[in-house]
Amino acid sequence: MDDKEKESNFIFSYIDKDLEDGVYADNRVHTRFPPEPNGYLHIGHAKSSLLNYRTALKYHGTFNLRFDDTNPEKENMEYVAAIKKDLKWLGIEWEDHEYYASSYFPQMLDYAKEYIKKGIAYVDDQDMETIKQTRGNLTSPGTESPYRNRSVDENLSLFQDMIDGKVPEGEKVLRAKIDMSSPNMNMRDPIIYRVRHMVHPKLGTEWHVYPMYDFAHPIEDAIEGITHSLCTLEFEDHRPLYNWFLEHLDEFQHEPPRQIEFAKLNLSKTIMGKRYIRKLVDEGVIDGWDDPRLATISGLRRRGYTPEAIQNFCEEIGVAKANSTVDTAMLEHFIRDDLRTKAPRYNCVLHPLKVTITNWPEDKVEWLTIETNQDVEEMGCHKMPFTRELYVEQSDFMKEPVKKYFRLYPGNEVRFRGAYFVTCQDYVEDENGNVIELKCTYDPETKCGSGFKGRKVKGTIHWVSATEGKPVEIHLFNSLLKDDSRYTLDNLLDKINPKSLEICHGFAEPEVLKLKSFDKAQFVRNGYFSVDPKYSKPDHPVFNQVVPLKSKWRPPKKKN
RNA sequence: AGGGGUAUGGCCAAGUGGUUAAGGCACCAGACUUUGACUCUGGAACUCGCAGGUUCGACUCCUGCUACCCCUGCCA
């Protein structure tokens, strides 16, 4: 009803203007997400793919998924499968609009020949090093290749040799004839085709020439009828070239696509670069692309993030042209927000401290009924066993309480969530002075739900039966990087937060054994957890901490 | 001869010459509370990178500075 107007952004303004000016017939809007299948998607790709997808939805347009597989050196089909899986999971639907740049290769050849015939493309015999030398640099112009003015026929014939596989790699390239003294380096006779004798993941060994991005991309867009080609800022300098390629092709004079650039997403205290991730995997710091500490889509999924949280996050961070780094706290906010009404809430003790209820009978087990999620009535209730021996969190007890501490300490009474008021009577220490057990009493009149109003208690803590509870392994995550200082491949290891992963062996109420992979559970006071599908066994779940709960309680700075 | 971009509170980000410069995150204070969560209420930009100019009026237009980012792959 009060369908809140989606945040506007500069891209929508551009599109609105195009529609107003009638640039595209029938007010059509057609976007695309063009990943190169050479790695896994990360949160930055989520921003981009969602932007393209939602833009199409907003304007009742069309969205294409296109694999930009123009470089057989780094690409393979495993990545396309992984990418499709991640996009689907993110809620992106492309129906049958799934395309591959490589399927346009025959067409692209024709366009390349059209340039040759128009005298604006030539085969260059210079080697890579020479081409690099003659390109000039940022402040001085390049020099023209001696092969720049070959005849159309010679170019055609040489290019055919390249196509036919008669030319060794690196010996010849096809170049666009533009301007070797352009201040824009991209316009200094960019390479259109290079020779590669390789197996292409989709095309096999049939091809010997592969098109370069700058040439291929505008053509791919034009072939598919893309109207707005959204890409990241580093391609801003390529736009003149993008337009140049299209302007010189007869077929694409009608409603050519328009490239619009936006800033890519940076997230604080994490890494997204493929090379860096690979290094961390090689060094054994993380266990793969789907390590829960990574901001890859698969990592976030394994950690327990929901697609909705990522969608909302991407919506809220907006789209602009200013380079920026979004605080991870923002991402965490959206997963808390989403899980609050989705996660069942079970008790789990991460760092167990034994509690004996001295006035509770030895063998008595009382199955208390407790709401599974107080905020969501439909989730119903479940049973939780209360026994003589229990575990509470070590941090829920202090021998000598600091001011404003209202959990357990000698003489203090607290509520055991869903159960009774419990008073700490005494504690037991080992020979080193560590507290290893609490002796407590409970008050039968204070049972949860009995309507007892005799007195109030300041603290409520969570607990698990020591005899009925189940052992669980819990992985707590902190930020992967110590800070946001600049890192390189060389110093990356020094920047890693040594406490990025803490493994706890705790106990959870029996109900958690019913959780399946990807189910989320909120463990009281500690945060949200998900079952880790990678390592969990049915009888001994491994939980990942999706995100900690926020807490105003801060333990005192220092104690003697 | 260099070119292309960007600058709005701690972090994102609206704003396209005319109300007290949206909103979210973070933070602080208070209320509430069977999770110190959640929820609710309240709180900060004498000001929009800096300096000039145009205008009755500028974050929005002009000029000049400054800072940061991108570009010299047969990667995308």
Which residues sit in consecutive blocks of at least 5 with pLDDT less than 50?
1-5
- The first-level CATH class of the domain at 10-264 is given as Alpha Beta
Q: What gross morphology would you assign?
A: elongated
State the end-to-end CA separation.
59 Å
What gyration radius follows from the Cα positions, in whole Å? 31 Å
Question: What's a concise summary of this model?
Answer:
This protein is of the alpha/beta class.
Task: Name a few traits of the molecule.
seven-stranded mixed β-sheet, RNA-binding, alpha/beta, Rossmann fold, 27 strands, disordered N terminus, single chain, elongated, Ribosomal Protein L25, Chain P, 560 residues
Structure description:
The protein has 560 residues and is an alpha/beta fold. Among the domains are: 10-264, HUPs (Rossmann fold, 3-Layer(aba) Sandwich), CATH 3.40.50.620; 345-468, Ribosomal Protein L25, Chain P (Beta Barrel), CATH 2.40.240.10. The chain is 24% helix and 23% strand. The protein is built from 13 helices and 27 strands. It has helices at residues 10-20, 43-58, 77-89, 105-117, 128-134, 152-163, 213-224, 239-247, 274-282, 297-303, 307-317, 328-339, 492-495; strands spanning 30-33, 62-67, 98-100, 121-124, 173-176, 191-195, 209-211, 228-232, 258-262, 266-267, 325-326, 345-346, 348-349, 352-357, 366-371, 381-386, 389-393, 413-416, 421-429, 435-443, 460-461, 463-465, 470-477, 501-508, 520-523, 527-531, 542-548. The strands form seven sheets. It has a seven-stranded mixed beta sheet with strand order 12-25-26-27-23-24-13. It has a seven-stranded mixed beta sheet with strand order 21-18-19-20-14-17-22, with no helix packed on it. The chain has a four-stranded antiparallel beta sheet with strand order 4-5-6-7. Helix 8 (239-247) links the parallel strand 8 (228-232) and strand 9 (258-262). Helix 2 (43-58) crosses helix 11. The radius of gyration is 31 Å and the shape is elongated. Mean pLDDT is 95; it is low at 1-5. It binds one RNA strand of 76 nucleotides through helix 5, strand 6, helix 7, strand 11 and helix 12.
